[in-house]
Amino acid sequence: MPVNGLLGDPPTALPAAGGAVRRMAAGLLLPAAAIALAVAGLRVSVPGGVTALAAVTAGLVIAWALCAAASAQARERTPQWQLAAGAVTVSVAAGAARIADRASGGQRHAALAIATVAGLLVIAAIYTGFNEGPDNWQSLWTCAIYVLLGATLWRARAVQIPK
Questions:
Q1: Cβ(161)–Cβ(106) under 8 Å?
Q2: Tens-digit pLDDT profile for residues 94-124
Q3: Which of 17, 87, 108, 122 could pair covalently with 64 via S-S, beta carbons 3.0-4.6 A apart?
Q4: Are 94 and 117 in contact (CB under 8 A)?
Q5: Is the pLDDT score of 156 beyond 50?
């Protein structure tokens, strides 16, 4: 498939994966924000302290943010913004769930927030998979991770936490 404007034009190279500002935002600022928000979410005091689910979620968000930072440094085209913005989105959702638990003290809000994030991850994976197509293997791996994380969160929402 030619990358040129007309069929008679000579082929041209793909543009660079992104400038310095773009790499700085997607590779440093957004992942750092995701890590800071994940840590801040763990520091919210809730009845019962930090649960295993909250710790695992924060760990996954931190790993996701580090993957986004590494992906932004790659020379080939990668879903830089999707990875970085996804990590920030999940860290905000996890923090919001902890704040809701603190305000209500109930497990229903946490289960609802976790189910919402799980559903959004699966929807994002389906959309990204169709949008990027089967030729982009990095996108397919990202979609697989989204589905795995969504399935894990979906199963974890029903776990009863002892008081």
A1: no
A2: 887 787 777 665 566 666 777 777 777 778 7
A3: 87
A4: yes
A5: yes
Q: For tokens 């109930």, name the residue.
A: 106
Around 99, how many Cα atoms within 13 Å sit in the side-chain half-sphere? 10
Per the domain annotation, does 4 fall within a domain? no
- Nearest CA-CA partner of 56 in 46, 43, 42, 44: 42
Domains identified in the chain, total number = 1
Full residue range of the structural domain in which residue 38 is found: 20-156
Tell me, yes or no, whether 113 lies in a domain. Answer: yes
Structural domain includes residue 122: yes
pLDDT for position 35: 93
Question: Distance between CA atoms of 154 and 146, rounded to whole angstroms?
Answer: 12
Over the Cα atoms of the chain, what is R_g?
A: 19
Does residue 70 sit within a domain? Answer: yes
